[in-house]
Amino acid sequence: MPADQKIPHIVILFDQWEGFLNGIGDNCQSSVGQAVLGLLREGASAGIHLIIAGDRSLLSSRTNSLVEHKYLLRLADRTDYAMAGLSPRELPEKIGSGRAFESATSRETQFAVLDADLSSQAQVRALGVIGQKATQSQGGVDLVHVPAVFKDLPVKVSYPQVLSAAGGASALVPWRPVLGIGGQDVGPVSVDLMDIPTFIVGGSTRSGKSTALVALTRSCLDAGVPVVLMTPLRSPLRELAAHPSVVASYAGADITAEVVREVLAMENILLVVDDASAITDYPVTDEFKKIGAALNNNGLRVIAADGLDELDRVGALSWMNELVKRRHGALLDPASIFSGKPFGLALNQEILGQVRPVGRALVNVGDGQVTSVQVASGGEVF
Hints:
By secondary structure, this protein is an alpha/beta fold. Helices cover 26% and strands 19% of the residues.
């Protein structure tokens, strides 16, 4: 195979293994831990190599049997060398800094340093300089051979920032609203309403569900999509009523059976409802039960938000069943592994135990995958 077509080797440098074990707290039983063990078992055949540094927990964990080449520096307890197959009696009484012993052969090795200054700060700076030089010398390398860049999701992102990342307001696509920043590439995450006619947003009080609803609505409005707003309770969605793309906005008692009948008769509009379960008047809900025909025949699209308990209680006779049964949406602050059911999200205790800031949503955009998204908030509406 020509050199320019070969897949590059990938080296993963893994520092402080003990911190990783403490973080997942399950001796690698979780999917994250199993993924690391899988790389140790099978990664080399695919050109993936791990270099792991840590304390004695490296020797007592399941990694010990999966790592062939082990170098042991000075340990506090000399008997721990036996865990790697070394005889403590055959090692020097005093072991200097940087002096290591290879587990299979007991060969003595002195590790090199990157700078004459042995402080950790100086070594990090020296590594940074090497990285800069490598970037300059390898600047013309094809992207396929460039290492992947992994980014953290921001704890907060504004609507203008999301728009900027998406290429500006002019790059917005009608019927494809942007929810926030997320996914593997930590980029704009959008919802294709032409493919998914209904999308629900659920969460506990002050979890950010109304913020998510506003972000989706803003994006559609700025793309020129005609929108009808319904807010049976107080909602920040009402602040969008003055947008030129809003066809109508109904609040509280204004949401009548006649209004619903008129809205469902409209063609190619987006209906956005906050606190959907608060619409309880029988004549109104009876009209809403005809929403399925409007979705199929009139090009209606619906985005609705509600609490997790309310969404969980939606039954076959509820007008909201037409929205929930498609199993698409954004979930904020899940209460249990069953919270994901209305959204088509398969949750487990590992996902549930993750610390999430306000506005961090677990999203199913129609692919059945769990995608973490930081919902857009704040900024000017128009």
